[in-house]
Amino acid sequence: MGRSMLDEVRKVAAGWRWTRRPLVPRSAEPWLPDPAAREFPTAWARTPTAKAVREGILRFAFRPLVWSETEPTVEGRDVLDSLRPPVIFVANHASHVDTPLFLCSLPPAWRRKTAVAAAADYFFDVWWRAAATALAFNTFPIERTGRKRATVTARRLIGEGWNLLVFPEGTRSKDGWLGRWRHGAARLALEYRLPVVPAVIRGTYAAMPRGRSWPIKGRLPVTVRFGTALTPEDGEDFRSLSRRMQQALARLWDEDASSWYASLRRETDARTPSLAGPDGAQWRRRWEASRPLSRRGPARVWR
Q1: Which residues contact 162 (CB under 8 A, 6 or more apart)?
Q2: Which residue of 118, 232, 268, 272 could cross-link 123, Cys pair, CB 3.0 to 4.6 Å?
Q3: Cα–Cα distances in angstroms (integers) from residue 10 to residues 3, 13, 15, 16, 216, in the given order
Q4: What pLDDT score was predicted for residue 303?
């Protein structure tokens, strides 16, 4: 009798729909009517109490964890000295470690006033994941489908003076290289005439690629490099600004991989390597992206 009851419970659990993710095939999504307006509330995550808790989580939990499991290097934070919030940070995205690494790389005053755009259909599909990410990283939901409601919360946050961290790819890279670029950040920057601060993140795909829940052993090097802010120009459209964002990230990547002077020379000669990665088979692209970065500074005595 007990075993029969246990088998019934297992069947119910196996067939139960545990999340609110849509069951409609991706190919049919363009023909779906806009869903009823329903959004997980995140305003509570920006109250004084929540901000104090988040600062403790980032400073005393995530920073020691990320800095002990990887070997981070942060460059270019001085570009923030001449800026005032709000700004839009744009960065490439290859790993779940990108967000805590980026936030912990910001000066505390900037970190406490930065909100992170997160995919509504992944991070906000169940309440516990939505609440955890909103509290720990100050995330807010954004629609990857690009519907009209995609940037409603982002606009409200900008009006309240919050900086935004946006990963324009909308998801983690599958092979470590820059994927399809979405234009939401460029549209917001143009609409509100906000500076856009490019930031390139290198080494996180090698340290913790998609599919892993913990960084690879060995404290692989990772870097965060901030670049000079881009200012929307008069008469510029979002496509032009998006191109400038991608070019800025590519030059920052080249600078981080070589040197400031060499990257400027290549940019002048239009020879900056593309962040789209090398042409070739998928396995070769992943193999190239998985190559650990060179360690900086003196060699470690202890391992």
Answers
A1: 46, 85, 86, 113, 114, 115
A2: 118
A3: 11, 5, 9, 10, 34
A4: 47
**pLDDT tens, 167-226?**
999 999 999 999 999 999 999 999 999 999 999 999 999 999 988 989 999 999 999 999
Q: Which residue type occupies 232?
A: P
Using the structure block, give the residue that is written with the tokens 């590519």: 250
Q: Which CATH number fits domain 42-289: 3.40.50, 3.40.630, 1.10.10, 3.40.1130?
A: 3.40.1130
Tell me how far CA of residue 291 lies from CA of 15, 112, 227, 278, in angstroms: 41, 33, 24, 14
Of the pLDDT bands very low, low, confident and very high (cuts 50, 70, 90), residue 20 is: low
How many C-alpha atoms does 299 have within 13 Å on its Cβ side? 1
Tokens found for residue 240? 């032009």
Instruction: Determine the distance from the C-alpha atom of residue 234 to the mean position of all C-alpha atoms in its chain, rounded to a whole number.
Output: 28
Which residue, among 170, 168, 167, 173, has the nearest Cα to 277 in the 3D structure? Answer: 173
Domain segments of the chain as ranges: 42-289
pTM of structure: 0.84
